[in-house]
Amino acid sequence: MRPIDESQMTLFLLFFILTAIGIELYAYQALKTAAKKGWFRWFYWGITSLGYLIFLTQLVMFIAGAKYRGLIGLSFASFITVSIAKWLIIVLLFSEDVVRLLVFLGRKVGLLSRTEQYMPSRKKFISQIALGLTALPFASVIYGVFKGRYDFRVIHHTLTFDDLPEAFNGYQITHISDLHMGTFDDMDKVNYAIDLIQSQQSDVILFTGDLVNNESNEVLPWQTTLSRLSATDGVFSVLGNHDYSEYKRWERAEDKEADFENLLRLQKEMGFQVLRNESVHIERGTEKIALVGVENWGDRFVKKGDLDLAQKEIKADAFKILMSHDPSHWEQIVKNHATKYHLTLSGHTHGMQFGIEIPGWIKWSPIQARYKYWAGIYSDNGRFINVNRGLGCLGFPGRIGIWPEITVISLKKGVIVL
Fold it and tell me: Most Cβ neighbours (<10 Å): which of 196, 203, 228, 243?
């Protein structure tokens, strides 16, 4: 993680504070119109100021390299909740102000009657509606933090391939990703998630990276629990961008390297086989498929993935499953690679932990402005990718509309219908 220049930090904070003041003064107009009690206004400004103070304090601590604590996530969640509520107020008030301005201009140029005042006063019911709507984001965020983050969902997919070896017809994969163990705080809920994974009775469990947030010790409270993961053909993993000890300030490079090696050791102790630009074969009798794992390859993050090195020990015409943390790799390299990778498994995006998904109707998240392939199954050039929505959280300690995911993929031999 690159050090942040102090002058840049100062400019950012100044811009943030000035913008926040403008937003707060504008949003306050709804409160001023709808609420007449003086004590309520003092309460509003007191809570607002306290919220900004906590958020800015935690932000500075985070940038300074402080270890993740629940307070950081909760203060961020509180800030986001209040911000969303205020933006709803602003949208409604701005819409009303546009109408008021048009009325004012219409009267000025004589298109409308001048019998009434030029600039009609703000309507109290608009302010009351704006305030009423703020209950929606508050309720959503509260649910997302206390319930949504543990609302584990099992999603099933069946994928058909004409060149799948016959012995693997019906082969079942459980795909998990982005555990981010440093943000979990409920042992019973995590144990439930492990039970849910194990109950799928898949042939293999594949984990596509981001075991931790900042450092390897985040795994320690959960090591015994994660060690319960098992499957007939094993548990395999690759590394995500958060697994390289990049998101903590280390006094010495040796400490950073030692932490990374410790993470690899902990995964081995838990029974995970970490694939670092390498491949293995899974066999059924005389037939086999290749499992290929690359280190993180991201266009904005750690880029250590080497696909050519990883495939060195397998035949070009083998049936291949690729594990690569960041879906950018599939978009930019894998889907058009000279060697065909039948199925790629990724994570990384979390679906931004926020969005709207109604099967067969709508699938939306702000993250799609950054990632074309951000959640679920996609196909291109006769190749598939599954982007897992992640099991854990990062930053915001909750999920709204994009739930923590366990993917179960069944492979089927047959004719592909395009």
Answer: 243
